[in-house]
Design goal:
By secondary structure, the protein is an all-alpha fold. It has one domain. It has 6 helices and 2 strands. Helix 1 packs across helix 3 and helix 3 crosses helix 6. Bound molecules: iron/sulfur cluster (SF4). The site of iron/sulfur cluster has 11 residues, from loops.
């Protein structure tokens, strides 16, 4: 498990080193899934990292927001509870103020690495964040 988490985190580190300007201002607009109509899709490795980040806050049960926002978005301050562990999609998202979506060709090698980890974990490709993280939290 530790090696898996490290492999996924190394993808995130390599993404941050890409010479593509990103300027996430933590506006959290992209965390409003229902409003935007877009939900990040997570591979199993990403889900395990997100679940690990969630557990490290001392929480055990994933909230089910009634407004269709991300379960990791804290309603009291609109901050991401797992920002350092947020999935790939949250780092390459469609937020225009942050620079718009990254082009797939610029990160395809990183996507392939996440897909490879997913396969090694018996996954069948990405799933919507709430379902993917629920699976990861079930892994103990
Ligand atoms: S994981 Fe964090 S950054 Fe990603 S959608 Fe949820 S609250 Fe937003």
């Amino acid at each position: 498990m530790k090696a898996t988490l490290a492999s996924v985190r190394s993808v995130y580190t390599d993404l941050a080193r890409r010479p593509v300007r990103r300027d996430c201002l933590r506006r959290t607009e992209c965390c409003q899934f229902k409003r935007t109509g877009k939900t990040p899709q997570l591979t199993r490795g990403e889900a395990l990292v997100a679940a690990h980040g969630f557990r490290s806050t001392g929480r055990k049960h994933l909230p089910e927001p009634q407004d269709g926002s991300c379960p990791f978005l804290l309603p009291q301050n609109q901050k991401c509870l797992i920002y350092e562990s947020r999935p790939f999609g949250c780092r390459t998202h469609f937020c225009q103020p942050a620079g718009g979506p990254l082009e797939r060709k610029d990160v395809l090698d990183l996507i392939r690495r996440l897909e490879q980890i997913d396969t090694e974990l018996g996954g069948d490709g990405p799933h919507a964040l709430p379902q993917a993280v629920a699976w990861a939290l079930d892994q103990g």
